[in-house]
């Protein structure tokens, strides 16, 4: 089995958002983390009835790096999926600290970067939202960030 599609062990933190197309949540996007070994993975779970709804509206349904024709319940990626790489600030950018500060972050937390910037990308009309009712116009000059009013460092930890 390909290790890049295996779920990590000892998951104790899960943060979930939505991959949206217009006002349609196409999938959930979860980052799973293990504090025991420092590993993380990403899980994309298509919402198939919404994907069909979008197609019936004539919208192009695609999630970068995911073969939707396989029609799986979930797609697990140990590394950072293409969908995310296209939508976050590259690690080597000289202005990374300034860009992170603009969205209220001290470190390059990919999940938070996605949620706060909505993961808008010029390659498609998909975006990321913490909740399925937050609708964003990806074609507008969008610089209204979604900076939460709660402590995101404690968000997603599983109480066992």
Summarize the structure.
The protein has 160 residues and is of the alpha+beta class. Helices cover 18% and strands 21% of the residues.
Report on this model:
The protein is α+β, with helices and mostly antiparallel strands and 160 residues long. Helices cover 18% and strands 21% of the residues. It is built from four helices and five strands, in the order E-E-E-H-E-H-H-H-E. A five-stranded antiparallel β-sheet has the order 4-3-2-1-5. The model has no long low-confidence stretch (mean pLDDT 91).
Keyphrases for this structure?
single chain; 160 residues; alpha+beta; 5-stranded antiparallel β-sheet; 18% helix; globular
Q: How far apart, in Å, are the first and last alpha carbons?
A: 30 Å
Shape: globular
Report the biggest beta sheet as strand number plus sense, adding barrel if it closes: 5 strands, antiparallel
Average pLDDT, rounded to a whole number, is 91
The spatial strand order of the largest sheet comes to 4-3-2-1-5
Low-confidence stretches: none
What Rg is obtained from the alpha carbons, in whole angstroms?
16 Å
% residues in beta strands: 15-25%
Amount of helix: 10-25%
